[in-house]
TrEMBL record:
<dbReference type="InterPro" id="IPR036390">
    <property type="entry name" value="WH_DNA-bd_sf"/>
</dbReference>
<keyword id="KW-0804">Transcription</keyword>
<keyword id="KW-1133">Transmembrane helix</keyword>
<dbReference type="InterPro" id="IPR036388">
    <property type="entry name" value="WH-like_DNA-bd_sf"/>
</dbReference>
<dbReference type="InterPro" id="IPR002577">
    <property type="entry name" value="HTH_HxlR"/>
</dbReference>
<keyword id="KW-0472">Membrane</keyword>
<feature type="transmembrane region" description="Helical">
    <location>
        <begin position="27"/>
        <end position="45"/>
    </location>
</feature>
<dbReference type="GO" id="GO:0003677">
    <property type="term" value="F:DNA binding"/>
</dbReference>
<protein>
    <submittedName>
        <fullName>Transcriptional regulator</fullName>
    </submittedName>
</protein>
<dbReference type="Pfam" id="PF01638">
    <property type="entry name" value="HxlR"/>
</dbReference>
<keyword id="KW-0812">Transmembrane</keyword>
<keyword id="KW-0805">Transcription regulation</keyword>
<feature type="domain" description="HTH hxlR-type">
    <location>
        <begin position="14"/>
        <end position="112"/>
    </location>
</feature>
<keyword id="KW-0238">DNA-binding</keyword>
Amino acid sequence: MTDDRTPDVMNPKCPSRLMLNHVTSRWGVLVLIALLDGTLRFGALRRRIGGVSERMLAQTLRVLEQDGLVTRTAHQTIPPHVDYDLTSPGIEMAHAVRALADFVERHLQSRESSGGTSAGD
């Protein structure tokens, strides 16, 4: 931060760096994008993302909730279940990372069609 109140992501001591790290992590991006379509239970979210362990998904959801991007709603039903959804700032952030993911997908397709290096090379 440039002073005690102004966020500056370029400053290594700025707390915004921690949130940026959470959001742009492999699973953070995918959780935010998956929740753009609406509320999901833990199992449905895990299936939608694919490849994420229960432990890693739980950890990712916990930090995104602490960052104010995701809400967790526990229902007192039998069996109990928990819903996850985006907050207003979470929706805004999810749209931003969705645009980033769209760019990556388009760029990858154009590289592959032009004979560029693919992700597996």
